[in-house]
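Subject: sequence -> structure tokens, single chain

Hey, anyone have a minute? Need the predicted structure for the following. Not urgent.
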Amino acid sequence: MNSKKLSFYFFLFIIPFSLLAVDDSDIFLDAVFFTAVKKSNYEKTLEMIEKGVLVNKRDSKGMTALAYSLKNDDEKMFDLLLSRGAKIEQNILDKTSNLIFYISSKKFKLLEKIIDAGANPNHQDSLGRTPLMHAIEYRNIKAINFFMKIDFDASITDYGGKSIFDYAESSRDMKIRRLFKGFEISQ
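Reply:
Had a minute. Here:
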């Protein structure tokens, strides 16, 4: 085998596709789709969906296109993907919800849209932690304030038996501790 063929095979099969940014290809439609979403290329995203790319497919990292739109805080892409069948409740990574992923990124802007799209505010990850527990852990004060205004189950504990109140009490952030001082579980 000559060196050009060997180099081609090495490039094609050995280098991980996650390292490649594919903007256009007739062969790697999924890669083009994910690249378009990551780069907020709405036209290319729609084109790939029309060519048959599955909107809810996960990439090699376990992420969906919807998760990347949330990572970018891209409201327009989020709306586009939802309108094309993206599922807000599809788990990503290792049993993480899109809502938990978003909150853990210390973001807030799209929180109401995520809940309105059907995200479960009581979803528990692989350790039993809820989105509010993650908000406390990551000191996402705006997300905590948001949750205090919506209907969620404050009695849920993680798989180790810790409640949101335990998370708040063990927080180093005094503002978080004060937020939970007067908060009671409503039945």
